[in-house]
Write a structure and sequence with these properties.
Number of helices: 3
Order of helices and strands: EEHHEHEE
Strand order of the largest sheet: 3-2-1-4-5
Structural class: alpha+beta
Helix content: 10-25%
Strand content: 25-35%
Largest sheet: 5 strands, antiparallel
Length: about 120
């Protein structure tokens, strides 16, 4: 029976990676609030990350989404998520893949035109 190559031989095989949605806020100087995962695919981690924007990380925990707090509980409960990074990590060592990440956040809507009479 053929043996599946290890991570060092086939680093892009998705069965060798876990994906985490790491969420933060820009409020109060910026803080990393929580990580949600592991997720089997980048898409499922991205869906959680996008859903978290404009919510609090605490509300995501209340919805039953598995994760870990990375900041003081008061900040996790009070501050809204404004940005996120989807990280790819080795499932055993949890070492992050420094060559792969996806970032995003809340869009800042500027004023497109100033109308005066």
């Amino acid at each position: 029976m053929a043996e599946e190559p290890g991570v060092t031989h086939n680093p892009d095989n998705p069965s060798h990676w876990h994906y985490y949605a790491v969420v933060g806020t820009t409020i109060g100087g910026g803080h990393t609030l929580a990580e949600f995962g592991p997720h089997p695919t980048a898409l499922s981690a991205l869906q959680v990350a996008v859903h978290a924007v404009n919510h609090t990380a605490y509300s995501m925990f209340e919805q039953g989404i598995v994760g870990h707090m990375l900041a003081d509980a008061a900040m996790v409960e009070r501050l809204p998520v404004t940005n996120f990074t989807v990280e790819r990590q080795h499932p055993v060592t949890r070492a992050p893949d420094a060559a792969w990440s996806l970032s995003g956040g809340r869009r800042a809507w500027g004023v497109a035109a100033h109308l005066t009479a």
